[in-house]
Design a protein that fits this description.
This protein is mainly α and about 190 residues long. The chain has helices at about 20-30, 40-50, 60-70, 100-110, 120-130, 135-145, 155-165, 175-185; strands at about 10-15, 15. A two-stranded antiparallel ribbon has the order 1-2. The longest helix is centred in the C-terminal third of the chain and has 14 residues, at about 155-165. The two termini are about 25 Å apart.
């Protein structure tokens, strides 16, 4: 488990050099969500982006990818553990492509960070993203994820309009949804 307060930002996983810039993390995320690629092709692209001096054996490479995408933590779901969260892990609620301008402006406004000019470790980017606060990006994500079943009729209607306006393409196949759930630590 990675501790931001005590640990240096890692540059390797199990001795294998990592490319840690947040842009690489975004490119990996985009490749993993690419429905035009098979799951094996997605992983091959992700591994080639992540590992700087050759890819480790498959099991280490896969664990390192999960660890990297999760900001230094491996998913800790146990076999048969039920998902207690409201969100379906196969459903996308934000996109580095569709939400790029909102993310850029949010980082600029909240942190004063000019993302197109600032190198940043993926773990630092994830920590800042997770605490972005109120901005256009978080408002759009809220529209996409809010539980409309508990809203009055008029509020629900407004949220459904906003969901149509800001909706994202979802994984096209069951295989893609299962792949993403497994990668995020689900049972798949």
């Amino acid at each position: 488990m990675y501790n931001f307060l005590l640990d240096s930002l890692p540059e390797d996983y199990e001795g294998y050099l990592l490319r840690t810039d947040y842009r690489v993390g975004i490119q990996i995320s985009q490749a993993l969500e690419d429905d035009e690629l098979s799951p094996q092709e997605r992983l091959a692209v992700a591994f080639s982006l992540l590992y700087g001096n050759g890819t480790p054996p498959a099991e280490i490479a896969y664990q390192g990818l999960q660890w990297f995408l999760n900001g230094g933590n491996l998913p800790d779901r146990e076999e048969g553990q039920e998902d207690s969260g409201e969100e379906d892990p196969g459903i996308r609620f934000f996109s580095f492509d569709y939400d790029a301008a909102r993310l850029y402006s949010g980082f600029r406004r909240v942190y004063g960070i000019d993302l197109d000019k600032t190198p940043m470790h993926w773990f630092r980017f994830l920590a800042l993203l997770g605490d972005l606060g109120e901005c256009a990006f978080t408002q759009v994500v809220h529209y996409r994820t809010a539980d409309v079943s508990k809203m009055d009729k008029e509020t629900r209607r407004t949220y459904m309009i906003m969901r149509r306006k800001y909706g994202l393409p979802q994984p096209e196949s069951e295989e893609s949804r299962e792949f993403m759930e497994k990668l995020r630590g689900g049972d798949g």
